[in-house]
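re: the backbone from monday

yeah here it is again, tokenized this time
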């Protein structure tokens, strides 16, 4: 094997054959035509796939470790939004050339994140072409519970985890290539590069939450998806939207707009009965903030305290 330009089979063997959390559930992992995984008794399989493309989902030239964490973090976030416990993933990696330094950093970051979230890599595909990373994630749900977008009820609270707008601000910082990066720029760009899928919170919500979605396209856009699926209206109070100190300091004028319309935060937006809020707040591994409530019918998302430009609702491919 050439050390710097390994072949497809060398790549798989050297970088991906033993990646992630060592679990007892994988009966046959990488190396055969397909993987075999034991399914826990009475669990349901929950699965999702996500693709990130260079120049579309992350800027060209993004460091390999950031490509890895963005791809796996955003994919796992979909399992979080269903309340699933993540277990395995597969990786379809398309890249313009075989570069072992790039692959080493990519695989190391992927491994570290996989261990942190308890998932193992059980298969994939490796091809040549424009840099594209597809991650399929698999997880388990109990037989009788799941979080969907469709179960919000009138009178419930509308709640969000973490802070919003950070990843969008981080992307702006990266696009402006600020000559004088500081701790706040690092924080915001880190929120873009390395999403934190809220898996534990999602599992806690199985017991107390109703509807849930992860915020990938922007608060307004994803709130609208939830409102439509549940056939309810949502009233957001702009003054309640949680904003990080870094966002407020670096983007004082645009902070709220970023929180409402920029995507990529991968926080959870969910509804729950008011009586369940205190217990959740004491359990949740991440702060959760009430930002509004579920109103009657109408499927409208309204924002008190902000002049909405309906055209600016979030990121849409092909627009
Ligand atoms: P096939 O031609 O039968 O589809 P491949 O030669 O593509 O098999 O892959 C060989 C083995 O390596 C399979 O187990 C596959 O799942 C795994 N594999 C290939 N690429 C990757 C990757 N990027 N990450 C993880 N596993 C991979
Ligand atoms: Mg085969």
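seq for it, each position gets an aa:
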């Amino acid at each position: 094997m050439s050390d710097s330009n390994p072949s497809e089979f060398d790549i798989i063997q050297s970088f991906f054959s033993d990646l992630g959390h060592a679990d007892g559930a994988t009966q046959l992992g990488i190396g055969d035509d397909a993987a075999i995984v034991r399914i826990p008794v009475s669990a349901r399989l929950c699965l999702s796939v996500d693709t990130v493309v260079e120049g579309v989902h992350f800027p060209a030239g993004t460091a390999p470790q950031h490509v890895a964490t963005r791809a796996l973090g955003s994919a796992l976030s979909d399992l979080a939004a269903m309340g699933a416990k993540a277990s395995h993933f597969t990786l379809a990696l398309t890249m313009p050339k075989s570069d072992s330094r790039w692959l080493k950093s990519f695989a190391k970051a992927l491994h570290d994140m996989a261990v942190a979230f308890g998932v193992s890599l059980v298969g994939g595909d490796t091809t040549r072409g424009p840099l594209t990373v597809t991650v399929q994630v698999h997880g388990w749900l109990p037989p009788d519970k799941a979080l969907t977008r469709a179960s919000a009820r009138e009178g419930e609270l509308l709640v969000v985890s973490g802070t919003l707008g950070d990843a969008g601000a981080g992307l702006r910082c990266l696009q402006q290539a600020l000559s004088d990066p500081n701790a706040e720029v690092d924080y915001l760009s880190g929120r873009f590069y390395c999403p934190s899928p809220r898996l534990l919170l999602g599992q806690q919500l199985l017991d107390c939450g109703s509807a849930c979605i992860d915020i990938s396209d922007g608060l307004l856009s994803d709130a609208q998806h939830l409102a439509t699926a549940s056939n309810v209206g949502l009233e957001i109070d702009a003054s309640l939207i949680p904003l990080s100190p870094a966002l407020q300091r670096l983007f004082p004028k645009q902070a709220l707009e970023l929180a409402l319309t920029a995507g990529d935060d991968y926080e959870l937006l969910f509804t729950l009965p008011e009586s369940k809020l205190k217990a959740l707040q004491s359990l949740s591994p991440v702060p959760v903030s009430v930002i509004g409530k579920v109103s009657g019918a109408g499927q409208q998302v309204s924002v008190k305290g902000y002049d909405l430009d309906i055209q600016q609702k979030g990121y849409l491919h092909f627009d």
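Residues 162 and 287 are 6 Å apart (CA to CA). The chain has two domains: 8-141, 157-304.
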